[in-house]
């Protein structure tokens, strides 16, 4: 495992750098990548960001001020990518086994690069990029600050998740002073939803039913609902959080139809429940607060199967 | 206008302190009041918090560790109360004209107390209470930190509003180090909704319609919807933000039925629109981003009147 200093020394000597993001890119992988890209460009190096999937237009502002150049890479760096397979098939087949440096905050990182700087105490990979600024002797600026702030705020759910540390807040303060428009970025990331997201949310919420003295909420996301809403994968990823948000709900269950008759189940649980244990009943897994499993059948059948599992888990935990 | 030092000196010499919150108490007025109450109790003084309305159960944790004592006040302090009328009629008739110290961050504060410490640069009154800690030579503790953190995070919409400054983030970091469970508080304040809020949100969202090339969204909140949802005033206050959250919407209009045939209209606007100007068409007012007015008629009639005003405002701003 490498240190920040080793990563910085490597980057100081690097030339013609490709920076790779993970599939279905989020604010942290993109914010980290574009911040690093701009930092390297400010050091007089050629650098560019590559990603398997086109980023959502909401992240377009991260690319502002980046010089677009064509060149072949001499150095390949991954940011926020825990495993090479998360590069996506095209990038993996091109760069797999040839990554020089990996910068990542996932504890699950499998250390696939030549040099692996992994810090699972960081709330976001962007916090690590922040650490690089003085080590690379690059002057911060509003654009770099905006990229790093975006990575941090999106990966902490606007400073809400338990990964948020005092250091996270202090970095946010410094980034504001370097010109990051924190309020504007937070509103763009958290107070704006696409029409299709609004449409799928309202259909999904309409389907919500409550069971076991309202301590379990079950929500359906069917292919029909997705079609009628015009929802894409981006719109669907946040839905499983909704049922658990209702006060008093200990188990929030989302039944997402992947193909006709095939469902991916997402469970969000609150202590003393354990989402991983609950999902293990049907061969799934996860961790304490979030888990998943797969089930076949009609929506009605799948809902009943999950309610059985929830009831059993409630009884095991002494709730019913 | 008094300084923090003057307010602290006054409090050091004060005895038997009543701390008053504003009507329909929010996280800032309550967090500030209970933090100050605990600080004064730690200084060996008798102190208690009074509020016209019973706080929502979600704020119950703020009172933990407060000693409940019966005594007559020698000193009366208001926190986060811009005007005596905001105390509510009972507290105002009892304490109006007899407030010794007012601590508030509202620029609109009318300086009604003997000593008025007003700081409109503070993102929350709780930021000012934070400033008092060293001045009163009180040792911070997890409970005081939780109260102050709650005030700050609720008044900044989880560090989202433009009132958030680098100082706000730095105070949050310090509060975490003093034991505030930031993640837990943020989730309780922002990731949890009552069943009745969820019910009114889904009914209101179902009513949403889009006009003028989807740049205007109109949502209804009728008495029938409120009744069916079991929603209270607490549940309704956040609804007007919903229509404007949809990407591309410049004017979000919420038509709330107050009595049969009487509507309170809330407008949320994005530049170049101006909510105050738009609402002024029907004798209302507000500021750039949020405004309101009142209209009579059926839901259909009121919707049409508002659409007319929106269309006119769009044309005035060169949008249509």
Plain-language structure description:
2 copies of one chain form a homodimer. Chain A is an alpha/beta fold and 320 residues long. Chain A folds into 2 domains: 4-190, inorganic pyrophosphatase (n-terminal core) (Alpha-Beta Complex); 195-316, Diaminopimelate Epimerase, Chain A, domain 1 (Roll), CATH 3.10.310. The first copy, chain A, has helices at 4-13, 27-42, 89-95, 125-135, 142-155, 166-177, 182-190, 195-206, 223-229, 233-236, 275-280, 299-316; strands spanning 17-20, 47-50, 75-79, 101-104, 115-118, 209-211, 216-221, 251-259, 262-269, 285-286, 290-296. In chain A, the strands form 2 sheets. Chain A has a 6-stranded mixed β-sheet. A 5-stranded parallel β-sheet of chain A has the order 2-1-3-4-5, covered by helices on one side. In chain A, strand 8 (251-259) and strand 9 form a beta hairpin. In chain A, helix 1 (4-13) crosses helix 4, helix 5 packs across helix 7 and helix 8 runs antiparallel to helix 9 (223-229). Chain A is elongated. The model of chain A has no long low-confidence stretch (mean pLDDT 95). Chains A and B meet through helix 6, helix 7 and helix 8 of A and helix 6, helix 7 and helix 8 of B.
Range of strand content of chain A: 15-25%
Fill in the CATH topology of the largest domain in chain A: inorganic pyrophosphatase (n-terminal core)
Query: What is the typical, i.e. mean, pLDDT of chain A?
Result: 95
Number of strands of chain A: 11
Uncertain spans of chain A: none
Distance between the termini of chain A: 47 Å
Q: Let me know the CATH homologous superfamily of the largest domain in chain A.
A: inorganic pyrophosphatase (n-terminal core)
| Total domains of chain A | 2
Determine Rg of chain A (CA atoms, Å).
Answer: 21 Å
Mind telling me the CATH class of the largest domain in chain A?
Alpha Beta
N-to-C series of helices and strands of chain A: HEHEEHEEHHHHHEEHHEEHEEH
Helical residue percent band of chain A:
25-40%
